[in-house]
Amino acid sequence: MKKYGYFDDLRKEYIITHPDTPLPWINYLGTDSYFSLISNTGGGYSFYKDARYRRLTRYRYNNTPFDSNGKYIYIRENKTGKFWSTTWQPTRHTMEMYQCQHGLGYTTIQSQAEKIHSNVTYFVPLNENLEIWKIKITNHHTHTVDLSLFSFVEFCLWDAQGDATNFQRNFNIGEVEIDSATSTIYHKTEYRERRNHFAFFSCSEPLKGYDTQREKFIGSYHSMESPVVVENGNSLKSHAHGWAPIGSHHIEVTLEPEQTKEIIFILGYSENKKSEKFSPPDSQILNKEKVNQKITYYKDPKNVEDAFIALKRYWDQLLSKFTIDTPDVHTNRMVNIWNQYQCMVTFNLSRSASFFESGIGRGMGFRDSNQDILGFVHLIPEKARQRILDLASTQMPSGGAYHQYQPLTKRGNHELGSNFNDDPLWLILSTVAYLKETGDFDILKEDIPFENQKNSEKSLLTHLELSLKYTLDRLGPHGLPLIGRADWNDCLNLNCFSEEPNQSFQTTANKEGKIAESLFIAGQFVYAAKQMNELFIYLKMVDKANHYSGAIQKMEEAIVQHGWDGEWFLRAYDDRGHKVGSHENNEGQIYIESQGMCLMAEVGKKMKLATKTLASVHRHLATPHGIMLHHPPYTRYHLELGEISSYPPGYKENGSIFCHTNPWIMIAEAMNGNPEQAYNYYLRINPSAREHLSDLHRCEPYIYAQTIAGYDAPTFGEAKNSWLTGTAAWNFVAISQYILGIHPTFNGLTIEPKVPQTWLEYKVSRLFRGVIYSIEVKRVEEGENPSCEVDGIQVNSSTIPLPDVSKKEVKVLIKIP
């Protein structure tokens, strides 16, 4: 199979050496409020905070090429008239060399055509609402060359939904402003509506010309591949009035042989804070003072270089909080660099904006964001804290939750509403993870509103109890939790036949008679409630612990009595009381979700159900490319099951390898004492370990994808939906906490390795509550016994207690059999 690039672990980069990757292989720029996506050929888009309501640049989904359009710089040799784009696309000119370096928060694309070498670095400086494009151009001819450079972005009219649909309005509202003195193009569409924000696109060089009207720049019947302005070598100084506003600078450059010229472009966002005081006439006047200060600052190459160095230092320091040195290069690479990097991106954006997510409909997922915290919390705990409070404030007084909320408004998405009955329980898991990581129990006293409504505040601890109560108030005829619209599997919609109230089963919580029950939520309840009980015991709230111990026991009994199918756990009961995920079914006999969640919750531990369950998973669901969601897949549409059966066999929820759920089985195998199998499953979906399959896998070899086509799919092994997936967080939890065995607790750091026998030793450096734990794990030598030493003193517990606050480092030596 073709190899498209390679890892540079020292520089923390993936180097792409062929521009025609199977899919665009992308990167994310930005760490706080301003974000930008960029592919290995310059495609992508930018936005401020909210990919729907603050979209700076336009992107066309489901297009050809796949990553249209983007952040382009065209170079034209004026004497010959030949032109090309520095990023290969969109002109796809034959290149003498090409290389894309995707790093942490930056991308550098180098290329050479017609003996003109270009090096473009894209990045978002820390704490800035702008992005930098720094281009260096070198002339490798033996003679002087005269070049023209044309930058290009296409502005989005802010609301990406309206931008893509409301053309009778859009073609009339586009407005720009040009400041030739500062080489800046301002995009101010809708500024007159007191939206009070604008974009800017500036350049460090004096302008030969500019264009702001797309049709003028490209030509009525041309394309991005051959814009008429670039073909002719002269900008038209077009001024957009409606239609499609763009930003394009025209710069002339003369280079002697081997001379290099550096040019800086700055694309950014500005918002004035006091829009409510603006009168309509004033709202058309841009407040440029602060923006121009930023532009002036970043036109200085030294300041750009300092910002770039600061960005790299930021990521080095961040990732130093958890580092490993194991015998396996794929594990080291993913844990030390790319898995944690992806955890950061998914935390920032949830499932809102990628090349597979439009940034319009999803917003920040309640379930998604809580899970993302699990893999992120050790990196920037204070951000995790705020996210937990934001999520809790969208919760309803019933304990239910809006499935998603918009990041700009932090209001629940009423279009999707609630009734995904697993949602509330995820808040418990993220909060407990935060508490174990930080020891910040004061967060439980924070007064948080419901649905962001004033005068409705209750403590976060109350919110967590309501999450448990929400489940207990909604139990079905088997004593199992009602699924509602769906649980974790959004496409498993089991209440399709309940159009009329069911007269045979009515409860206070279930007036509509929709009685479909979820074994997944049942296991999740036990898993979450046990963690809450652990918290109650730590807080010495004995009565609470005793109360929920009874609820846990009752739920476990219901699962074993009504949810055990003899070799594995059922998935659900539909709204007619029929089993889902049973050997009695012709299709969809066994599902991964209920197996993983029930085993992580240790349901049926006394009966030793884990061994049988995991054997069934291996026999029915495991493939060389990962573990399938269920099997056999559905070959026809089942109204009683809903959307899950609308997919072709082997794709997405209908029997694909849904990578998000694979770590649950890794965790279960490790907990059941099967480290070899746990690690084997880990490697099957590890992107680095799949790099040699790039032509088949297609997605980035440095980032987890959401799904891989299952055994029954014609494209078995092909990945889709990369980057924004809970796979990132859960894989980090599985490898760091259960396989490597470094697990935060309320009282200290527990170290219980479950690694392959071939690993004779490995090292972990882990920052925990301000202290570096330098951990070395070795196999016992002949005649030795397993042991644990902390700073040279032998201890009899796998939990290393919290050290004295003055201590900066703890050295731990673990010897394992």
Automatic annotation (TrEMBL):
InterPro entries: 6-hairpin_glycosidase_sf, 6hp_glycosidase-like_sf, Gal_mutarotase_sf_dom, GH65_N, GH94_catalytic, GH94_Enzymes, Glyco_hydrolase_94_b-supersand. SMART domains: CBM_X. Residues 12-275 form the Glycosyl hydrolase 94 supersandwich domain. The keyword Cytoplasm does not apply. Residues 314-741 form the Glycosyl hydrolase 94 catalytic domain. Keywords: Glycosyltransferase, Transferase. The keyword Heme does not apply. Signal peptide: none annotated. It comes from the Archaea. This is Glycosyl transferase.
